[in-house]
Amino acid sequence: MNDKQLRKYLRIFIGLLVSVGFLALIFSMIPIDEVWESMRGISLIWLIPAIITYFVGVWVRTTRWCLLMRPVKKSTTRRFFPIYVISYMANNILPMRIGDLYRAYIVGKKENVSKSASLVTIGVERIFDGLTMLMLLFAAIMFYPIENDKVRQTVFIGSILFLTAIVICYVIVLKRSWAEWVFNTLVKVTRIPEKLHVRLKELFDNFLQGLDSLRGFKEILAVV
After folding, report:
1. Rounded distance, CA 66 to CA 157, Å?
2. Which of 41, 66, 68, 168 has the fewest CB atoms within 10 Å distance of its CB?
3. Going along 51-140, which residue ranges are E strands?
4. CA-CA distance, 200 to 223, in Å (whole number)?
């Protein structure tokens, strides 16, 4: 067995070990008796359409991500679908939506593209998710006004954050020269070493590339 095969099997072993560890941690926090009692009450006839609906939804979301990824890597929904499903699995197991970071890592390694640019497209995707949730919430408020002050405050702050994020993205896309001027000015003011400057410039260019999906009206309409 050569070193390359040994490293491969070692990665597989470590991956399985980590997976087993997380599964053991999860099951240790779950009341198995209550879960089993709930599962016994499941109406199996609804399980099949629920699973179909779920995967159709994931397929549509993968198609949207393909549109956002076009400036980085043109591909098909069928090719990106397994990557998307894996990231969902990771989000279900790991905290703080680490599955999104994992998705950028997988697509970067599998498709040989910039991981940072891919991560930007995922960030844009999350911004559109937030805007969609806000629109649904505002529609609900028209019929059921919010009486809780904390909920109203959360809606207000969320609206500001997501709207500010999408405005900043569009300003960067439409006024790229402004973004480059701000970046170059910050580099000069902070007196960043040349080697670090080159690396930061590469990351900055990848960031702009990830936002290029917002440039065309047809692409935005398709994403929305």
Report:
1. 30
2. 41
3. none
4. 29
